[in-house]
């Protein structure tokens, strides 16, 4: 029963999630550039979180609901993404300290910034 409910929700919202994912995927690339091929990894955490947050905002915005109601309905996604980000950053530090492998490109956090942005 629940699987059918989630399936119908996804069928209804997938276009909005795709738009949110593309926005969240390309904004860091535009702002910070591509220091290595690893930054083009398609399933970055920020892209996924952007798909949920931006896609949900677009979906509820298309339903013409009041802004206060949209805000409260989106809070569960915001909370979920904050927990996911904190777990990911803790896992990043753990993997980096144990093995020395840097998973930063796969998360979507830029290692370096362009020199001209902050002058």
UniProtKB/TrEMBL annotation:
The chain crosses the membrane at residues 16-35, 41-62, 74-91. It comes from Desulfosporosinus acidiphilus (strain DSM 22704 / JCM 16185 / SJ4). This is Uncharacterized protein. Keywords: Membrane, Transmembrane, Transmembrane helix.
